[in-house]
C-alpha cells in the first residue's frame, strides 16, 4: 500500500512474466524441469507432486529448474540497473566527491598542525571550498570527531579479529573488504538520498567480484574460497546497510530538530541491544524452520531470495567456469541491456515537461527482484495493496492522509509479532490446527 502504483505494477508484471509466462515456457520446451517433492520412490496420490523452485545443482547447466534459470537474469538486472541509477546522478556524485575531499584535507591539516607541520597547498584547498550546511545544532550538541572515530576503529579491530579467528580470513582480505565497504557505502548513502533506493545487491556483488579475483590466485579449496567471498560481500553490504539506515535516522532527527548528540547516544544504546537481539531472533526462526539453513530443501516457509542471489554471485565469482545455462545467460544480457537503456532514458530524456511520463516506465529493479523471488503471490499482494491505497486516496483523501501510516504500521508490527509467535509454536511442537488446503500434508 505504501510502495506506489508504479512499483506495485512492476512487481506484479514481473511475477506474471517470470512465473506465469517464462517458467511454463521453459518447462514446456524442455529447457528447464522440476523435481518430484515426494522423491522418486514414492507411490501414492502425491506421486506427481512437482516443484519447479528447486536449487539443486547436480547439473544446473543442462537440467536447471525454472527458478535457477531465472535467477541469473534477475541478479544481473538488479545489479546493473542499480549501478546505472547511481551513475546517472553524476552531478551530485561530483559534488559529494568535492565535499569529501575537502573534509579529508581539513582533517589532514588539523593533524599536521597538531604535530607542528604545515601543508600550505592543502590548507589553501581546504579553505577555498564553501561547504556550509544548514545544521542549526550548537557546539554543545554536536558529535565530536572522537565519538565516531573511536567507534570506527573499534569496529575495524573487531571485524578483523572475528573474520580471522572464526573464519580464517586473511588480514589483507579483511582490509580490502573494509576499504571496499567504505567506498561503496558513500555511493549507497548518495543513492538512498537521491533515489530512495539502497543498492545493497550491487554493493555486495561488487565486493564479491573483487574478492573473487583474490581467492582465485591462492591455493584455496572451492568451499573455502566461497566462504571468504561471501564473508567479504557481507562486510560491504552490512556496512552500507547500517550506514544508510543511520543516515536516514539522522535525517529525520534533523527535520525534527533533535539534538545530534542525544540521537547519537540513543542510536548507540539501540545498537547495543540489537547486537544480541537480532542473532537471538534468527536462532528462534532457524530452530522453528530448519529449511532456511538446508540448501537441499525443496520447500520452505521462507523463500529467502537474497540467499539465492548471494549464492549465485558467490558461485560466479569463485567457480573456474560459470555454471549458467546458455539460454539463461543470453536472456540475462538482453533484459539487462533493455533495463539499463530504459533507466538512462528516464534520467536524460524524460525530464522537465516529459518527466510526468516516468510513471509509465516499468521499474526494472523490481522486475529483477520478482525473477529471484519464487513466490508470485508477493507481486499479487503488492498489486492488491496498491489498488486499495489508490482507491482510498481518491475516495477519502483526508482519511488517507491521516490514517495510512498508522494502519500500515499496525499491519507490519502485527505480521512481525505473528511470525515470532508462529516460530515459538513450531518450536514447542504444538500439533493443534488443520492442514486443510495444504498439499501432501506439508502444513
TrEMBL record:
GO terms for molecular function: oligopeptide transmembrane transporter activity. The keyword Transmembrane helix applies. InterPro entries: OPT, YSL-like. It is a multi-pass membrane protein. It is found in: Membrane. Belongs to the oligopeptide OPT transporter family. This is OPT oligopeptide transporter protein-domain-containing protein. It comes from Fusarium solani.
Amino acid at each position: 500500500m505504501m510502495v506506489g502504483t508504479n512499483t506495485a505494477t512492476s512487481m506484479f508484471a514481473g511475477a506474471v512474466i517470470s512465473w506465469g509466462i517464462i517458467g511454463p515456457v521453459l518447462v514446456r520446451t524442455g529447457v528447464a524441469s522440476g523435481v518430484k517433492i515426494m522423491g522418486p520412490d514414492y507411490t501414492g496420490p502425491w506421486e506427481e507432486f512437482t516443484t519447479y523452485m528447486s536449487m539443486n545443482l547436480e547439473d544446473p547447466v543442462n537440467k536447471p529448474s525454472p527458478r535457477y534459470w531465472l535467477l541469473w537474469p534477475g541478479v544481473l538486472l538488479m545489479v546493473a540497473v542499480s549501478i546505472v541509477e547511481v551513475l546517472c546522478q553524476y552531478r551530485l556524485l561530483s559534488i559529494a566527491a568535492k565535499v569529501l575531499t575537502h573534509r579529508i584535507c581539513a582533517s589532514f591539516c588539523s593533524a599536521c598542525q597538531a604535530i607542528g607541520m604545515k601543508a600550505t597547498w592543502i590548507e589553501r584547498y581546504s579553505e577555498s571550498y564553501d561547504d556550509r550546511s544548514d545544521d542549526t545544532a550548537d557546539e554543545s550538541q554536536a558529535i565530536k570527531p572522537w565519538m565516531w572515530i573511536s567507534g570506527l576503529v573499534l569496529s575495524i579491530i573487531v571485524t578483523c579479529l572475528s573474520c580471522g579467528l572464526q573464519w580464517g580470513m586473511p588480514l589483507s582480505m579483511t582490509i580490502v573488504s573494509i576499504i571496499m565497504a567504505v567506498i561503496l557505502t558513500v555511493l549507497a548513502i548518495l543513492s538512498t538520498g537521491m533515489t530512495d533506493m539502497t543498492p545493497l545487491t550491487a554493493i555486495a556483488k561488487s565486493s564479491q567480484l573483487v574478492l573473487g579475483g583474490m581467492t582465485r590466485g591462492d591455493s584455496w579449496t572451492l568451499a573455502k574460497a566461497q566462504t571468504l567471498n561471501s564473508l567479504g560481500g557481507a562486510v560491504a553490504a552490512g556496512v552500507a546497510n547500517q550506514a544508510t539506515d543511520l543516515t536516514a535516522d539522522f535525517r529525520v532527527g534533523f527535520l525534527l530538530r533533535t539534538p545530534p548528540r542525544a540521537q547519537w547516544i540513543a542510536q548507540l544504546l539501540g545498537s547495543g541491544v540489537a547486537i544480541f537481539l537480532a542473532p537471538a531472533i534468527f536462532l528462534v526462526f532457524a530452530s522453528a524452520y530448519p529449511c532456511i539453513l538446508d540448501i537441499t530443501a525443496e520447500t520452505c516457509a521462507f523463500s529467502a531470495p537474497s540467499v539465492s542471489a548471494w549464492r549465485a554471485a558467490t558461485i560466479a565469482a569463485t567457480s573456474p567456469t560459470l555454471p549458467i545455462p546458455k539460454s539463461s545467460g543470453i536472456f540475462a544480457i538482453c533484459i539487462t541491456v533493455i533495463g539499463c537503456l530504459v533507466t538512462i532514458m528516464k534520467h536524460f530524456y524524460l525530464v522537465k515537461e516529459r518527466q510526468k511520463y516516468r510513471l509509465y516506465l516499468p521499474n526494472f529493479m523490481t522486475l529483477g527482484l520478482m525473477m529471484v523471488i519464487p513466490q508470485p503471490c508477493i507481486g499479487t499482494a503488492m498489486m492488491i495493496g496498491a489498488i486499495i491505497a489508490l482507491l482510498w486516496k481518491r475516495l477519502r483523501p483526508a482519511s488517507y492522509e491521516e490514517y495510512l501510516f498508522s494502519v500500515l504500521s499496525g499491519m507490519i508490527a502485527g505480521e512481525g509479532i505473528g511470525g515470532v509467535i508462529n516460530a515459538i509454536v513450531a518450536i514447542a511442537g504444538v500439533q493443534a490446527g488443520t492442514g486443510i488446503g495444504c498439499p501432501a500434508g506439508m502444513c
